[in-house]
DNA sequence: CTGTTAGCGCCTTCAT
DNA sequence: ATGAAGGCGCTAACAG
């Protein structure tokens, strides 16, 4: 049934079978130039019969465009990643772009683009926070590669577009809720990762909420959280054994909130009666925790979609607005002390 | 500072600047053929200075290989997806392959390959369950494209390799645990999606566990679960209001277990005292539920890694073993009735 | 070890 | 509306 690997049909095979020139075949493929209906039909029949598929490499080479977008990630992990990718994929798909994925790997942020995503192998790049250093970003930019940053602002001076979420105001509201509604006074802050911008702004929101309410910024209440269950758990356990008094915890993100809940449970502290706990992100887990977690909803899928849309515009028109800041929304559940 | 878009440097520019021929440059790029150290150094300096990046399209065209693997998904969603992709990415990365991602979209399984992943735009394809119909798979196969199926077996007759997990025996053990250790007699089965092979084998495991223990297969205890929270919740609520008596639920997967837990909570039933609940998959959520969910751990990351490794071998050698069946492991927590 | 020369498969003016 | 011919940037024999 099977011949001897008849090495995939080319445009020439189609042309011959349809009795036309290759340029005509090319025209019915690209649909850029009018072709008589009759001829078009013949060509299409030939393509179908031969199971012809245009070879991307050849088109790319001739066109000097790849019709693919690269996504550079720091790592594939957590609840964060799926919605982000879903958002991106929906718009790249809609616009006929392919999606090439690559991770920085465990070595941390990279100083250069990975070769595969380098210039001309991709029409543009989506760069997620932590995947590239400032130098790495500058490198890509200097190559003339269209770039859009996600959850990370560009190195000073480079006008690279960026899309991220509102962290500070949302955190401020969240902490203010703890203070005003639940009368908490000693609120622990679990810090996020060192160079993470989200972490930075959340901390700013926390401080602002306290100071504007006349509460002291007690350094004893600040501990590492690193956006991870383990670190958060350790921090809270430590605080407890150090005898630090507190009646609430802003964990930095939902993962850290889970660690916090675990530490508190271990210590026999009741949540939210004795200690209120709040997170950030509103991951899929948040609603099913016990008690259900009060947190801030981060519109991650929307971030992905916006970033992709922006990159495509940048590729097509050469410009895109510098910053897209998506609003985040308070999600009140029960871990703050609100009734179910 | 910036010239007039000096249209990216090519291999010729590098050759000229290094004072060698383009073949020499090509050789230092591919490293297939020995080149004198001195010359190599000169060439590399030139490449660096020019910020030269080889154009993938040109290489692909000349080589007739793309060095990229396609991943065809039904949808990007859930806890399932991140570990799967992480597993795949780690091995494609290790072997120098790029990863092109595409989803079937909401229209359900497709009868043909998406053009971008079609022949010659990819060296091979990883196809996840539900992304392609049998015809779609056959189509890809007839094109001579190396294919590896994930969580789905090939259409009869086609020797397409596949990697999936052990469902039946694991479910059997899980249900047997309910029967023998916790003395449950009336165990609800929440069915999975209709054409899902995992769902099929899990149901077989459930039946086998009951029949080998002399328990009746009461049709009243079987209801739709669809691997989703909502459907599961509705099913359980319905069962309850119908007055069907049961003392345990095998939810089909962890998502459905969450829905089950919610329905039971709404009805004031205590878990696991009155009703034991078990899931399947051991998602990230499982351990933080209340009570912590007894389930079966599905080695999803490993599945991804194995599939990718198998595809690469298939691409390189033309063959790969037909079936990889990864073992799944019982994870006993508290929702079955075991002590914390 | 290095240079020369064909293509790889398709798009795109340029004529017709 | 269609055909002819050059070129996209690189690799891979083939000579030397």
Structure write-up:
Two copies of one chain form a homodimer. Chain A has 340 residues and is of the alpha/beta class. Chain A is 41% helix and 14% strand. Chain A has helices at residues 11-18, 22-30, 37-50, 56-63, 78-94, 134-142, 168-180, 197-212, 229-241, 254-266, 300-317, and strands at residues 68-73, 98-103, 124-128, 147-150, 162-165, 187-191, 222-224, 248-250, 276-278, 295-297, 323-326, 329-331. In chain A, helix 1 packs across helix 3 and helix 7 (168-180) packs parallel to helix 8. The radius of gyration of chain A is 26 Å and the shape is elongated. The structure holds a DNA duplex (16 and 16 nucleotides).
Low-pLDDT runs of chain A: 1-5
Silhouette of chain A: elongated
- The spatial strand order of the largest sheet of chain A comes to 2-1-3-4-5-11
Global mean pLDDT of chain A: 93
Determine the strand fraction of chain A and express it as a percent band: 5-15%
Structural class of chain A: alpha/beta
The oligomeric status of these chains comes to homodimer
Reported for the largest beta sheet of chain A, the result is: 6 strands, parallel
Q: List the helices and strands of chain A in order.
A: HHHHEHEEHEEHEHEHEHEEHEE
The number of helical segments of chain A is: 11
Distance between the termini of chain A: 67 Å
How many DSSP E strands of chain A? 12
Largest interface: A-B, 47 and 48 residues
Rounded to an integer, what's the Rg of chain A over CA atoms?
Answer: 26 Å
Helix content of chain A: 40-55%
